[in-house]
Amino acid sequence: MTVNLHDSAYSLEKAIRQSDEYNNLTKLYDEVNADVSAKAMFDNFRTIQMQLQQKQMTGQEITEEEVEQAQKTVALVQQHEKIARLMEAEQRMSMVIGELNQIIMKPLEELYGPAQ
Amino acid sequence: MTVNLHDSAYSLEKAIRQSDEYNNLTKLYDEVNADVSAKAMFDNFRTIQMQLQQKQMTGQEITEEEVEQAQKTVALVQQHEKIARLMEAEQRMSMVIGELNQIIMKPLEELYGPAQ
After folding, report:
1. B100 touches chain A (CB under 8 A)
2. Which residues make Cβ contacts (< 8 Å) with residue A10, sequence separation at least 6?
3. Whether the complex's predicted ipTM surpasses the cut of 0.85
């Protein structure tokens, strides 16, 4: 890989690390992890979320009961102020990553067209 | 989004555009597109590939016949020198993008652990 590519990627990595979005996210993540009940609630939510994602990715059927359980867990964690703030920060970070990816992937998109 | 993030992403985008891997890829892509029979063969291969991917992503069953057809098409396009070289260049580019993503995603991986 060209040296310039590596250097540019590391500059972007550093910029992400120094961004408000990332620092806000780590701060809120540490806050949730430092709070025993918040952490347990959040871990439980994550596990359910990942199980459903895995089922979806492998084409397994998701039962109505599972959907209901997931919805209840979302509603529950959103009541918790620290977790709700962390989830907002995650969403903002994920939007930033999406925007960065759109910029970086432009050369390939131009080659193959927007459909690919 | 922080200005610095945007700037860094655009620098990386420029570095990709100027990389040997990208320039080699565009050159070979143009060569295939300029060759009527190669282009038809490659387009057909792409269509089959995308149909299978879509089926896989939406959890639809892929028949044995479809797998066989896909394998035959791969074998066929790999016989074509121009297409074979293009596919190699695509693989190299895709590896580069993978490496770049690993670098960029490090801050988030550190936060959530390698499992996520």
Report:
1. yes
2. B103
3. no
Q: Using CB atoms, which residue from B2, B96, B111 is nearest to A29? A: B111
Instruction: Tell me the CATH class for A3-112.
Output: mainly alpha
- For the entire predicted model, the pTM comes to 0.82
Give the gap in angstroms from C-alpha A75 to the nearest C-alpha of chain B.
Answer: 22
* Chain A residues whose beta carbon lies within 8 Å of the beta carbon of residue B1: 19, 21, 96, 99
Residue type for B28, please? L
* Residue A35, burial from CB neighbour count under 10 angstroms (0-12, 13-18, 19+): middle
- pLDDT tens sequence for chain B (116 residues): 666 899 999 999 999 999 999 999 999 999 999 999 999 999 999 999 899 989 888 878 889 999 998 999 999 899 999 999 999 999 999 999 999 999 999 999 998 875 44
